[in-house]
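[Discussion] Sanity-checking designs against the backbone

I'm trying to build intuition for which residues belong where. Below is a structure token string of 467 positions. I'd appreciate it if someone posts a full sequence so I can compare it with mine line by line.
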């Protein structure tokens, strides 16, 4: 992302003039690079550099401040050619070492993640995994890199990672991490491997040199773009009759078992597990699923199967307010594809007004609004640490169906499992954007446990401490 932002005139700088901000300071820890163009004749140079930096290595945002008087200047400038992102290739020696390490492994696991994946790179990695019968898991909110229906796919390491996958990852003797930073969420708060020596063979492939060796010291570090690495990996001679065929099969069986909803309550009126399973069958292969941040996201993350060329768009930063705008943007780019945005009531109230943009642009994303009348994630932490003490997490929401009508989009409010399918089909058919509210049981705090179970556990832990 390249952000062009207006700045006060050059002769007003440092007066704290109207709306003056020192953008270099403000964005220093957030952006990959911040610059200001003070001379009109430097526009070609600095704009070229902005795109070059934003797209090369680990992609990241660049902020360009533009003093308003500079914008009124004219200058003679040569036209420069388009920017070309710089991506490294894996070397022959690195690939030979990778194959040697893999050949010596007993329980290998591949972790895919990060950005820079093209359709061809995804297909190449799937081919590499199948040829070597390797299990593949993915990092937080990067579930669409490998088609989840392939036998190689064994789950995701997000906020609600399956305990069986976490255990399996810990007992792996070789990790091949491709593109993932292995950050706090993916590494389950840095518990998947020891720091800094991971205690196992770690082959880390990343587009940026500075990410290699961060936290975990790799046995083999390979700086490479994803398309470049994936093509090379697919061309490697496969390990014949790998020792880990059973290990991969067990991992896949555990993942498939996880698709069966956990029985949390006796026939709940709105059974989210059944609804997610219905959606898994219903969504086309090229569907785009966007997600906000919040506990509701556990439902699509655990039960949907992301596919290619389908996409998952979600904030790996955990920022709320992303789901609706991302769904509107995805539908603008791909008007012919089904776009479903998953959102909590809290997150929807932050940026849900973007439904006006969808209506104005004439595009129809479908928003599934999980209404539990609270900031569920924060309530969960309150119950865990201070059971029964609820502060500032209850929400008094507007009438969402009425809000949908006010925006001019389709609205439905679903309180029973059997009402969902027809509401969803009507939303698809409406073609003008839709808000489908799911009036969920607030007890369903995660896909694996209830609010009262959490509270009981926290209370009895407190009792034990007292005793
Ligand atoms: C912009 C922003 N503000 C605050 C938070 C902290 N936060 C994380 S989840 C959450 C609550 C989410 O509530 P909701 O969208 O209703 O989803 P639920 O957890 O109830 O399913 C909050 C406040 C955040 N991640 N992002
Ligand atoms: Mg909520």
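Best answer:
Here's mine. Compare freely.
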């Amino acid at each position: 992302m390249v952000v062009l932002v207006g700045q006060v005139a050059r002769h007003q700088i440092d007066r704290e003039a109207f709306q003056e901000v020192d953008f270099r300071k403000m964005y220093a820890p957030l952006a990959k690079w911040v610059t200001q163009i003070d001379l009109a004749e430097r526009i070609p140079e600095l704009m070229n550099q902005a795109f070059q930096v934003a797209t090369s290595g680990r992609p990241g945002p660049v902020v360009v401040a533009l003093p308003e008087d500079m914008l009124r200047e004219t200058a003679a400038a040569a036209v420069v050619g388009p920017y070309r992102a710089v991506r490294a290739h894996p070397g022959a020696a690195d690939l030979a070492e990778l194959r040697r390490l893999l050949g010596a492994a007993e329980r290998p696991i591949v972790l895919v993640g990060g950005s820079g994946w093209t359709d061809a790179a995804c297909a190449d990695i799937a081919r590499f995994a199948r040829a070597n019968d390797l299990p593949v898991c993915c990092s937080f909110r990067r579930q669409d890199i490998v088609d989840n229906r392939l036998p190689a796919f064994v789950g995701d390491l997000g906020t609600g990672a399956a305990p069986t996958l976490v255990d399996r990852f810990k007992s792996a003797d070789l990790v091949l991490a491709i593109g993932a930073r292995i950050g706090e969420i993916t590494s389950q708060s840095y518990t998947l491997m020891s720091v800094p020596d991971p205690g196992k063979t770690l082959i880390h492939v990343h587009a940026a040199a500075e990410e290699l060796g961060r936290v975990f010291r790799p046995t083999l570090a390979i700086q490479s773009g994803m398309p470049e690495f994936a093509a090379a990996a697919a061309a490697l001679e496969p390990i014949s009759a790998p020792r880990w065929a059973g290990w991969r099969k067990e991992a896949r069986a555990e993942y498939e078992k996880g698709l069966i909803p956990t029985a949390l309550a006796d026939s709940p009126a709105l059974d989210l597990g059944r609804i997610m399973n219905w959606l898994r069958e219903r969504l086309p292969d090229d569907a785009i699923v966007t997600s906000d941040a919040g506990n509701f996201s556990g439902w699509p993350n655990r039960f949907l199967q992301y596919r290619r060329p389908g996409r998952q768009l979600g904030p790996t930063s955990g920022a709320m307010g992303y789901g609706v705008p991302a769904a509107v943007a995805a539908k603008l780019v791909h008007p012919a594809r089904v776009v479903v945005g998953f959102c909590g009531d809290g997150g929807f109230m932050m940026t849900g007004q973007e439904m006006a943009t969808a209506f104005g642009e004439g595009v129809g994303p479908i928003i599934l609004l999980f209404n539990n009348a609270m900031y569920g994630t924060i309530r969960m932490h309150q119950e865990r640490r201070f059971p029964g003490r609820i502060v500032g997490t209850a929400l008094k929401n507007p009438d969402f169906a009425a809000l949908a009508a006010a925006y001019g989009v389709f609205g439905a409010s679903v309180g029973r499992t059997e009402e969902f399918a027809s509401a969803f089909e009507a939303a698809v058919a409406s073609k003008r954007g839709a808000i489908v509210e799911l009036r969920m049981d607030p007890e369903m705090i995660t896909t694996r446990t209830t609010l009262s179970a959490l509270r009981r556990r926290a209370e009895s832990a407190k009792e034990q401490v007292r005793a």
